[in-house]
């Protein structure tokens, strides 16, 4: 199954469950409280997911390692390499 | 295998590592990356060869490669040039054809990937018997030098979207510093159809599909050319298109 199909399947199952409870499709006569809680769930979950995404990406950007030493080490090694290659006869 | 100077024993268990270096206008960087590869492979004692795949660079990269061949030997530096700039996937296919190693490294020739991580890749691969080991900028002490906030935001944002949609089981999908078992690389390259960033993503996604095991090594990515190769709107759009294609087809 492709990822797209997995999503379509997952959303369909959740969507069906939501519709079942919110609109009482099977005439289960569930307490009103269930319907009141279920009804805004899709929007609520989207908002929660949106906030989680922003927080996660924000955290990852803030903690993205800056490799200062790696750059300095590279600069030093470039000098060393150029010297050594010159000695070995490389014409640059 | 001949023993080497110093206390390092030759890791003579028959493994050989072929490093594929596709180049285009890397006249300045090629000698430096080769020097670093020779240094770190030499110190670690692993058997290796470097395969330079130059796509007809107008700046004379091939001539520099020939000089390097004279300095380091034709058994260590192999030249497999092509007439013009063709894709990365075909460069790998072309390079593998004459590779005598049973493992293959792929990496950038512009010094953004540092050969000092090569022993770590090899040890990681041996530790878990992985089919492929991917260098990651996003985990452990991996990281980047030379990126501004905008670039970091785009990078992390794109990676997050990719993780949500594809759940690939690897933290850095667009990275191109990797170690593959040769037969795994051959098998994957044939199946991949995308270009650019998405090609590297597709390789990992297809690896997971094929039940290949993937290990990770944190690496530092030193971006020295970011002034020239800005990440523009076009690239972002084609990345998203590629991502959605993978989402719908894998």
Automatic annotation (TrEMBL), chain A:
Write out the entry's keywords from A to Z: Coiled coil, Endoplasmic reticulum, Glycosyltransferase, Membrane, Transferase, Transmembrane, Transmembrane helix
Q: Is the Transmembrane helix keyword given for this protein?
A: yes
Coiled coil regions in record: 64-91
Copy the pathway line from the protein's UniProt record.
Answer: Protein modification; protein glycosylation
Q: Tell me a GO cellular component.
A: endoplasmic reticulum membrane
Classification via Pfam families: DPM3
A GO biological process this protein is involved in? GPI anchor biosynthetic process
State the superkingdom.
Answer: Eukaryota
Family, similarity comment: Belongs to the DPM3 family.
What PANTHER family is this protein classified in? DOLICHOL-PHOSPHATE MANNOSYLTRANSFERASE SUBUNIT 3
Name used for this protein in its record: Dolichol-phosphate mannosyltransferase subunit 3
Record lineage: Eukaryota, Metazoa, Chordata, Craniata, Vertebrata
From TrEMBL, chain B:
Gene3D superfamilies recorded: Spore Coat Polysaccharide Biosynthesis Protein SpsA, Chain A
Q: Which cofactor does it need?
A: Mg(2+); Ca(2+); Mn(2+)
Taxonomy, superkingdom: Eukaryota
Tell whether Manganese is among the UniProt keywords: yes
Q: Kindly state which reaction or reactions the protein catalyses.
A: a di-trans,poly-cis-dolichyl phosphate + GDP-alpha-D-mannose = a di-trans,poly-cis-dolichyl beta-D-mannosyl phosphate + GDP
Instruction: Note the InterPro entries from the entry.
Output: DPM1-like (IPR039528), Glyco_trans_2-like (IPR001173), Nucleotide-diphossugar_trans (IPR029044)
Q: Top-level EC class, please? A: transferase
- In this protein, which residues make up the domain named Glycosyltransferase 2-like? 18-187
SUPFAM superfamilies assigned to the protein according to its UniProt record, in alphabetical order: Nucleotide-diphospho-sugar transferases
Which pathway does the UniProt entry assign to this protein?
A: Protein modification; protein glycosylation
Which UniProt keywords are listed?
A: Endoplasmic reticulum, Glycosyltransferase, Magnesium, Manganese, Metal-binding, Transferase
GO CC terms of this entry: endoplasmic reticulum membrane
A single GO molecular-function term is: dolichyl-phosphate beta-D-mannosyltransferase activity
Q: Where does it localize?
A: Endoplasmic reticulum
Q: Identify the CDD domains for this entry.
A: DPM1_like (cd06442)
Q: Mostly located where? A: endoplasmic reticulum
The protein's job, in short, is:
Transfers mannose from GDP-mannose to dolichol monophosphate to form dolichol phosphate mannose (Dol-P-Man) which is the mannosyl donor in pathways leading to N-glycosylation, glycosyl phosphatidylinositol membrane anchoring, and O-mannosylation of proteins; catalytic subunit of the dolichol-phosphate mannose (DPM) synthase complex.
What family is this protein classified in?
Belongs to the glycosyltransferase 2 family.
The record's note on quaternary structure and interaction partners says: Component of the dolichol-phosphate mannose (DPM) synthase complex.
Q: What is this protein called?
A: Dolichol-phosphate mannosyltransferase subunit 1
- The organism of origin for this protein: Oncorhynchus mykiss (Rainbow trout)
Q: Which gene encodes it?
A: LOC110492631
